[in-house]
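User: Show me a protein chain along with its predicted structure.
Assistant: Here is one chain, sequence first, then structure tokens.
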Amino acid sequence: QLVLVESGGGLVQPGGSLRLSCVASGVSLHYYAMGWFRQAPGKEREGVSCISNSDEGTYSEDSVKGRFTISRDNAKNTVYLQMNSLTPDDTAVYYCAALDWWSTDRPTCVVSQGRYWGQGIQVTVSS
């Protein structure tokens, strides 16, 4: 059983940065494409950024392109999300997920791809 634990969330001012980490246990992460998702109050969970299992491809939603970067270190069984230039619209609970599938030709990052989920971590952007 794959267990995912997120860390690195918290309160940050607009324009600030945070780095989320997702550590896996139970199974090696190199078998899975991985993703970060988020759910704001009153909204549905949405994809943010996803990465292939071999780190050859990534996909990010338009709202975070140029600001967020997903990366992974399979040796540490860890996936990261570097978030820069944060705005109040980025306030949400952020979830790490191991994905059921990944398309090299047409990469996507949608909730239905998630197979194993972390418990989520709060990110609040406010002055």
